[in-house]
Each structure stands twice: as C-alpha cells, then as structure tokens.
Amino acid sequence: MTDTKLSVDEAELYDRQIRLWGIESQEKLRAANVLLINVRGLGSEIAKNILLSGINSLTLLDDGVVTEEEVLKNFLLSNSSIDQKIAESVVLKAQALNPLVKISTETASIDSKDAKYFAQFTIVAGTRLKRSQILKISTACREYNVKFICGDNFGMFGYTLADFQQHQYYEDRIQLTSGKKRTHGGSTTSETKKVSATLSYPDLGDVLTLPETPLKPKRRNVYFYLMQVMLMFREKFNRDPNISTKDDDIQQLKEIKEKIFHYYSVNPDKMDDKVLNLLFGEVVPICSIIGGVIAQEIIKAVSGKEVPIHNVFLLDPFTYAGREERIEAMNL
C-alpha cells in the first residue's frame, strides 16, 4: 500500500492494540501483505490471529478439499463446505473476523508457484510443508527479501521455524532516572527509551539439510531432531503418520529416528520412543498454541517491535512447555 496511515475507523477498531504496541507498529501491520500456505487446523488459527491484528491483505493458498474430518478441526469451516475447496470455503468466516482486511484465495498447488510469486508479499507463513518445499520457499523469499516462517503440529508435538534474514527490531525499555533531592529524601522517575538491534538468521538450507557425514555432537534440544524425523517422514511418504496405520508408521518413525540421530552423532536413547505414540493427528489445542506463536512472530517481524524468536520454537509433547532454540548453520 502507498498510504499507510490509519483511517478513523481503523484507529477506533485497533485502539486496544495501538495502546499495546503503538501507532507506528500498527501502521506497518496495516501495510503488510501476508501469504498463508494451507489453511487447515493450524492454518485457521494463524489466519484468525493475523486478521485480528489488522494487516492489509491475506492470501490463502490451499489446493485441498474439505472433508468431514477437516470440519472437526477447522473452525472456519462448516458441514456445508464438504467436498468444496478449503481456501474458498474458509473466506466467509475469516472475513467476518475483520472486514477491513482484503482476503484472496489460491487453489493451486504450492509446487506450481515459481520464485517470483513470493515477491509480492511482506511475509510468507506456511504449514503442512515438506522439507523440499520449505527449502524452495525459503530460497525464493531470500531472493526477494521476503520474510518466511513455517510450522506444524504432529499430535502433541509442534514446532516453528523462521528465516527473517537480517531483521531489524526495537524495544521500548524503561530506565529509572534519579530526580532532584528533596528535603526529606530523593525521588526517582523513569523514562522510556527505544533500543534498536539486528538479528541475523541463518539460511534454512543450512539448518535443515542433513549432513553427508555425521557431525560432531552439539548441545541442542532433543526435539529439534524430532522435527527432522517428522519432516523426513512426510518427505518420504508424502503424508503424516496416520492412526489407521499406527504400528507400521511407528516402525518407520523408529528407523528414521535412528538415521537422524546418527547424522547428528547423538545417542538415540536421549529421546524416549514413547514420544512416537504422541505424533498422530492434528490436535486442536496444540494448533492453537503453535498458531498463536506463529502469528505472534508474524506481528513482530512485520512491525519490527520486540525481539522475535531466533529461530526455532519447539513444543514438548509431554510437558507442553515451549522452548526457543537458536539453531545455527549445521557446519558452524
């Protein structure tokens, strides 16, 4: 958008969040054009949160068709949408969340899009992507200086992975200052200062690409390797683990786990195989958590306000505690 100033209606609608993160951040959000790839259970949570934040436009790209199962985990769908395109079916309820945001849909496959397609967006968010798709999109976004974040949930486990390249941000920090002494003692006042900084994100190709030979072990959260296991499973079988084939899928996951832990020179016993039983289905509460994290990071990335996650978020499937990780290039 060429005009980033808020209208009277927008200022009134976004009054509470303007008070939270300021008019400057809200105007940056108002100018942001977001691409959301796949609007399933997790995608619907992301869409809800960023629509309410007050972006300029949201493009929904999903080539899937609504099923009965999809209706149960996607609050933007209804039974009347079954057998219709997901991207088009979610628009009615999505638009009702914020009529001021322009929503458009794409029902083509993400694989049909060339690198230049991503240049029109401020930030790209993706779910249900294979490793090869993540790397393709990340490379395209880097070429056109577009920020990128993706994530998924597998049962009770979830993750987010971001590449904001050279990201400049600022924080408002309150500093105490000493006032003039009074007769019965001194006084203390405070002032708010804007503190700026830059985060440099490694290329996701370096973070995700598996080494040709085993690496020296590094101290990393064990669920980073679980993320790699799930991405390899999806890449190999073009699907996620399914409860209808649970026994076979768990065996496949065990074999992939052995390979991944070998690549990173990590003892496989560091991750209990019990976790493999918790990786089935798209669990709605977990979608809400991961969707909230991704939307929060989109807002930070677009507005430049507050410190973003750098660069991986992992949700523990046993304790449901989130952990931020700084994963550098694998050869560092």
Describe the structure.
The protein is an alpha/beta fold and 332 residues long. 37% of the residues lie in helices and 21% in strands. The strands form 2 sheets. It has an 8-stranded mixed sheet, with helices on both faces. Helix 8 links the parallel strand 4 (123-127) and strand 5 (147-154). The protein starts with 7 loop residues before the first helix and ends in a 7-residue tail after the last strand.
* Beta-strand share of residues: 15-25%
Largest sheet: 8 strands, mixed
Structural class determined from secondary elements:
alpha/beta
Q: Which whole number gives the mean pLDDT? A: 91
**Number of DSSP-assigned strands:** 10
Beginning-to-end CA distance, first to last residue: 40 Å
Strand order of the largest sheet: 3-2-1-4-5-6-9-10
- The H-and-E topology, N to C, reads as HHHEHEHHHEEHEEEEHHHHEE
Parts with pLDDT < 50 across at least 5 consecutive residues: none
Percent of residues in helical segments?
25-40%
Counting DSSP H or I runs of 4 or more residues, the number of helices is 12
Radius of gyration: 22 Å
Q: Overall 3D geometry?
A: globular
Quaternary status of these chains?
single chain
Helices and strands in order:
Elements: H1 8-13, H2 15-21, H3 23-30, E1 33-37, H4 41-53, E2 57-61, H5 68-73, H6 86-89, H7 91-97, E3 102-106, E4 123-127, H8 131-143, E5 147-154, E6 157-163, E7 166-178, E8 188-200, H9 204-208, H10 222-237, H11 246-263, H12 284-303, E9 312-315, E10 322-325
Helix pairs in contact: 2-3, 4-12, 10-11
